[in-house]
Specification:
2 domains; three-stranded antiparallel β-sheet; about 160 residues; 3 strands
């Protein structure tokens, strides 16, 4: 088994040579990714059946944790810090929704008029309630697949004024 065949679409083909114009940080990132891919491929030969599934589950979790650390560092470099408090619309939104929804998990406030949540999952009925409340309160929201809270496990909902 070779996971590289699944990764070629992402440019992670070890045989591919980068043009000289590619900056050094990008080269180093690709080098590390290829080392990880090679190590994973070696371990896939070592584990069978149930052990392989345990390996996958734990690797997936740990890679998400590593990505969390990288995302936190990226935010730090950009000067993005969590702040106390919440935007002015927060209490009205909470009152309108009569408590919390499961999609209101891992709330973060970075200042200004945006509120960010990082849920693990969500159901249609909760999004329907959020849509109704946002329309009533003059708010809008976006859903992003890339969440800095726990990449690969959580997604991000950003709620703000229209």
């Amino acid at each position: 088994m070779d996971i590289r065949k699944w990764l070629e679409a992402f440019g992670l083909n070890k045989k591919y040579r980068l043009p000289q114009s590619v900056p050094e940080p990008e080269r180093k990132a690709l080098e590390i990714a290829n080392e990880v891919i090679d190590k994973v491929n070696d371990l896939l030969l070592e584990f069978k059946d149930e052990e392989r599934m345990i390996f996958f589950q734990n690797l997936y979790y740990n890679l998400g944790a590593i990505m969390h650390g990288l995302m936190q560092e990226r935010m730090s470099i950009k000067g993005i810090k969590e702040k106390e408090g919440a935007p002015t619309f927060y209490e009205k939104l909470e009152k309108e929704l009569k408590g919390s929804l499961r999609i209101f998990d891992h709330k973060r406030y970075y200042g200004g008029d945006e509120l960010v949540y990082h849920p693990y999952d969500g159901i249609m009925e909760e999004f329907d309630k959020l849509i109704t409340a946002c329309k009533k309160l003059g708010l809008t929201f976006t859903v992003h697949g890339m969440s800095e809270y726990f990449p690969g496990h959580t997604f991000k909902i950003v709620i703000k004024k229209k």
